[in-house]
Fold these 3 entries.
Entry 1:
Amino acid sequence: MKLAFRMCKLYPELMDELKRTLKAMDIDYYKPAVKCVRSRILNGKLK
């Protein structure tokens, strides 16, 4: 997810697609670290 986010910084037109994909994830099956990165990307706190 972090690599995809970095790519989206270079190609801003991909950011909406990344956010739609992250929102569609069934988050119950992932570890807390993945949940944290997902929420930081969606909230705009990851730099």
Entry 2:
Amino acid sequence: MTLKCAIIDDEPLAAGLLKSYAEKTPFLELTGTYGSAVEAMKELRANPAHLIFLDIQMPELSGIEFAKILPPETKIVFTTAFQQYAIESYEVNALDYLLKPISYEDFLRVANKALDSIFTRQKQEAYSRDRFMFVKSDYKLLRVDLDDILYIEGLKDYIRITLNDGTKILSLMNMRKLDDYLPHPEFMRTHRSYIVHMTKAQTIDRFRIVIGEDYIPISDSYKEPVQQYFDDHTLV
């Protein structure tokens, strides 16, 4: 997967350093380097970037102001020499914040963070749109329809998917990543070892979700969002 990225910085030396970093990062495609947000505005409208390295202090239009008019799916990494802007940068939902002078190690860290975030979003969109996924089990790829899933249980390095018909599929998979990919709140983590297809819940009994003859625990760590889900679907 390749990410299109752009650099917006009115300091030529800082912009040049970021450009050299982008050009040697295999999964980044640098689409443009701009000296101001105003200069970048027209180009980015015609050729959007997945990721923008954006200076905060710039003439005419600051990086914070420019970030507010960018599409929400654009990942923003603020770059600045002034640490006091950190809190303000997160208020516009920035992916991260880099303090100048920027090392390649830090640049690569946030670039990988953007790659993971965009990959996860694309997976979520695919699962929500297509309503199925493939999982590896016994050296095969098995199709699993989301509507057939009752719940998913984490077993150390494996997961076990329980389906409507009682079928159980064992797969070597990361529970956290699966939780990221599945559409929310249709699928919710109720416990560090359980993800539940919430539309399949039949009864709530003493902080347990009852599905058929199975009781899935709700731990304190996940209690609040799970309770909110049921509150939203309760007639009072």
Entry 3:
Amino acid sequence: MKAAPEDQVILLDVQRLDNDVTRIAHRITSLQQGNQLTELGTKAASLRSQLAAATGDVEDAERDLARLESDTATAQARVERDTTLLAHSGSTKDSAGLQSELDSLQRRIGSLETAELEIMEKLDTLQARVGDIEAQLADVEAARSGLAAERDAEIARLEADRAAAVRSRADVAAKVPADLLALYDRQRARYGFGASLLQGGVSTASGVTLTNSDLQTIRRAAPDDVVLCPDSDAILVRTAESGL
């Protein structure tokens, strides 16, 4: 293929803009995947699980306390009833039975009240744990929201940069002959680079110094010959920097 040297040089600008578009796209993908956001999401999910368990423990303790309080109230009611009956009892036997039941009820009430205190202390600890987890979860969610907002703003900026690079690429590519641009696009799609500057005997696409044999072949090519890099298969653009 033949192409004017100045048209081949334009391919370096097309390649640079394509590299910009690719770099920006990779950056956007990286932000969208959001490793830090994923970590915070995992932490938030763990805290929500802990919160559900801790809340369940509080509810269990509250039910236990309510049951104890109900049992205590029932025992107190029986004490009041038996005290009234004892005050009006005319039978020694009945009085003895009532007194025995009162003594048993008082012991029962004492045991219930001790259990209530233990449950209340446990409930305080459990409620404190719920509050601590809620605070941690709030901090994580706030961090997630802030980070997501920063990410979205950065993605929006990068999208604008990508759109500008795509427009610039289209403007520059329009200056390249169709057959030369088609070759560039084909080589880039296949090998990752469409054009490579030969600079001081080095192909910038591959970073490899060409062999003397390759350089001799390139020297023999006419200025308007389209030469492919033997290492990267990109169009090898020759300028005064090529060292030929």
